[in-house]
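tokens incoming
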């Protein structure tokens, strides 16, 4: 049996702070001061991407350590400190490191906008040589940059990986002519702005384009991004569980549809529950609510409210999926149909692979189909259809009702759709609904 190759992208953050004390600077002051005296002391952090295949960065680190022990034994002193990430050319495991930054030497101008450039070999710090009008490798980034704590490694499907690499190389080619003496950017997309269109926004855009959930699209400083690496990895791990069951989710459209679906559940108290008291305590660790901090306070609250909600949503989805997979001793394969409430159109919609994940407005679900009846009864926001009919019978035998009256179908669909829309329903009752409303009552009581 042919071994399956795995694909990975890692977000790296190089903390370029010149003074240890500056790591404790409140970066919110930077946005308020718009590059005031405090910002003049800071050599900013930098975010970039690394792509590897067949081996994850952790595995490559272990291989390095094994090689190091061999070099020590053989007294090959010149090879002892070699690292896999020093390679400047792609190889069987490494497809290079890529990042976006200013292409000119005058960093001060980056506030208003400078010619931006996508660099390869971004694991190295470059000097902009104005006289020779070229970039010269200065040094390898600090060892801390490549430690597991400073990187966020995410497994991708082959399709996602190849799409990401194509997109990155297209950006690289588009900015290839930018040099240290360039006066104008290629276009607005590649105009580097320190506080608006920087290394972080480029990283987020590249990964969002292939269907990676990064929680927020307004990170300004890489240090803020690194704080939620663990959460990004957690959310992605739940997505991988769905992707490993449904091969359709390996496509970019499938992965992006998954994000559309999960984000439709935000602010739905039936699906995600946020303890407002704990949220407030979290926000208070960053800033106090007062007139001076009002804008910063509101932005922090919005950010962490979304974090808590997404974590709750993915926990809920993990629970739903676990209730299905635990019934089988071996891995199961099948197709997911993703159901959600579109707040803009105020319609229930469905995303499925055989419609290329284009949203379809639906009026009801046929509950004579046992997998539909199961999801409606359980209030699961998806329908799962196993590839194997025997698995389908094992999973749904209690929900195969045969002919069902139109009145029953109408009532059950209405109840189910109300829950997806986050609307309270006193007209119906079920044990599954009762469990969800426990959290809802907590919210109203607070």
């Amino acid at each position: 049996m042919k071994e399956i190759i795995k694909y990975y992208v890692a977000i790296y953050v190089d903390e370029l702070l010149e003074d240890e004390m500056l790591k404790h600077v409140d970066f919110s002051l930077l946005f308020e001061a718009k590059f005031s005296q405090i910002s003049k002391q800071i050599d900013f952090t930098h975010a970039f991407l690394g792509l590897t295949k067949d081996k994850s960065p952790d595995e490559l680190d272990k291989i390095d350590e094994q090689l190091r022990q061999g070099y020590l034994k053989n007294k090959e002193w010149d090879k002892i400190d070699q690292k896999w990430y020093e390679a400047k050319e792609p190889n069987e495991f490494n497809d290079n490191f890529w990042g976006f930054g200013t292409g000119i030497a005058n960093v001060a101008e980056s506030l208003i906008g400078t010619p931006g450039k996508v660099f390869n070999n971004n694991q190295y710090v470059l000097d902009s040589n104005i006289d020779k009008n070229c970039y010269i490798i200065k040094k390898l980034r600090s060892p801390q940059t490549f430690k597991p704590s400073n990187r966020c490694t995410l497994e991708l499907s082959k399709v996602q990986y190849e799409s990401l690499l194509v997109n990155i190389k297209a950006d690289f080619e588009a900015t290839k002519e930018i040099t240290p003496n360039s006066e104008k950017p290629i276009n607005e997309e590649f105009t580097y702005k320190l506080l608006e269109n920087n290394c972080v926004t480029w990283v987020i855009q590249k990964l969002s384009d292939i269907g990676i959930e990064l929680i927020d699209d307004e990170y300004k400083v890489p240090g803020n991004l690194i704080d939620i690496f663990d959460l990004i990895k957690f959310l992605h791990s739940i997505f991988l569980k769905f992707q490993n069951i449904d091969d359709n989710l390996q496509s970019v459209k499938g992965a992006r549809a998954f994000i559309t679906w999960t984000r439709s559940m935000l602010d739905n108290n039936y699906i995600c529950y946020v303890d407002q008291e704990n949220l407030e305590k979290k926000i208070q660790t960053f800033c106090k609510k007062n007139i001076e901090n009002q804008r910063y306070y509101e932005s922090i609250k919005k950010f962490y409210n979304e974090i808590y909600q997404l974590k709750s949503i993915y926990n809920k989805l993990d629970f739903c999926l676990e209730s299905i997979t635990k019934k089988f001793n071996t891995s199961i394969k099948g197709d997911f149909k993703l159901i959600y409430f579109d707040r803009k159109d105020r319609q229930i919609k469905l995303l499925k692979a055989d419609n290329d994940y284009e949203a379809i407005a639906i009026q009801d679900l046929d509950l004579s189909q046992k997998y539909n009846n199961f999801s409606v009864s359980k209030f699961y926001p998806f329908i799962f259809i196993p590839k194997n009919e025997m698995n389908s019978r094992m999973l749904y035998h209690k929900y195969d009702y045969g002919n069902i009256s139109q009145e029953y179908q109408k009532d059950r669909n209405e109840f189910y759709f109300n829950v997806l829309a986050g609307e309270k329903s006193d007209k119906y009752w079920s044990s599954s609904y009762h469990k969800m409303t426990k959290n809802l009552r907590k919210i109203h009581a607070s």
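note: The chain has a mean pLDDT of 86.
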